[in-house]
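Researcher: Next entry: Copper amine oxidase N-terminal domain-containing protein (Paenibacillus mendelii).
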Amino acid sequence: MLVNWMKRKVVLSVIMAAIMIIAVGCQAVGGVDLNQMLKQTLKVTSYEGSQTFEFKLLMEDEGLDGGSAEETAIFDLISHIKLTLDDIKVKDAANMSLKGKLELGTKSIGFSLAMNEELAVLNLEGAKKPIVLELGELASSGLFGEILGTDFSDGTHTEGTVTAVPDKAEQESLAKTGQQLIETVAGYAIENMPNPTRLKVSPAQETVRGETVNAMHVQAELTGKEIYTWVKSYMDALVSDKEGLHEMLTTVYELIQSQEGVLESAGIETESIFGSIPEEEDQKAMIDDAVDEVVQGISDLKQEMEQAEKEDPNFIDLFFNDETYVKADLFVDSKLDIRKSVMEMSIKPTVIEDEEDMSFSPFKGVWMKATSEKSNVNGNVIPVEAVQSKGDLTADQLSEMEGYQVLRQFKTDSVAYDILRNQMHISRQQIQMHPEYSYNPPIVTPAGITLIPLRDTADRLGADLKATAKGKSITINDFATSTVIELKSGSKQAIINGKAVNWSFPVTAVDGITYVPARDFVKSLGGKVYWEDSYDDEKVLVIEREL
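Model: Predicted structure:
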């Protein structure tokens, strides 16, 4: 229904806006300029600290009753996730190091990461070798490159064709401009952000990373209805500040213009970013149009919210109840640096069952909590050096591996190995063949023996197949199981790792395609074969193995 779709769209928009609320406002409270405090966070370039992020899926009482063991195992991993980062050392955007652990349900994996302009080195608990991501010049392209979707490291990006890679000075200029872009857009958003309804500021002493800090304690909280009202007030403020919006967009265009030469030398057309860059006399008119479009978009969203309220008077109570909330505790020092923060959010809509959709969902909401402590803010920070050693595993190598090959990079008694193999099943291989729609379909003989195309099957299992010119002699080398199979066309006999066995049907050519008995071939490679129902009420052949 249109109304239900509108409600969902409005709810999503409002909840996303709620995530932005971090105890901020456009006015000073209790002697703390919250506006300036938020802007100050954008200027933090170096620090030492620790952070945690925790996420939980809120479940109905029935939970996953009736779910398979595999579904339950996956759910146990993702229903409660906690990322703990200790000993964070950030020198700048490209140079940093940290230690931490990732907790998935009851399982925990430790790790450390060191990064510089050239590479990131990840040491993962249970991995036999460090994993290296080669960054090259990507890191030095900075925020501006990320904003434009540009990778200067290999001469490619998302728009156009690169003709030259910017030199270091140009990259530094791009990075600086990128930071200015962030500050400009965020500054406009912060200036117009209204105070939360419940906001308290008081002096406090707080221990931050072993140091006693004289700080101002900022506390803020919004529940469902307050979030909804706050978002509407924010929309009103944004729509009313056309002058600020015009100034912000003007600055953005000027920043883009300042880098026009560098971008064009790199093959990036500026008009592909924000449309064509106009002459000075046309710029004001174009920005006026852009302001009108932004204002109209915000106004349309607010109108949709009001329409949803009108269509269903219980709309706000259903979606924005007291169990949906966002709250924050911040400790701000005399330089307006946020030294410690605890932010928590719960999204738990109480939605009436849709008569058109009676499906049951085991989830009733999500809960998140993030904490952070910082010291030596914008000071001299020396991170652990990122060093690549001979034999380290690169991310490119890892991405090209089969699942079983990835698994072999981990110790068999490690938590990472257990998760990858037994919960995520990355070493599982499955092939489906439809008797009618597959390019080379399986064949069932009059005696009921199922035949499968040899080369297609071997290729999809990652095995190597070699045959003589006339296909009389065939050798299959399956690296996953260290199995070598030797076959001859027209013969039932197979030589498996040097041992002769008789199969149920001879190797047979059908329309130039070599077929072998499915169960015999797959069994020799440690797999199983079965038929299952498909979407068109027919049977589909499934070949499956887990290494």
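Model: Note for the record: Residues 328 and 343 are 4 Å apart (CA to CA).
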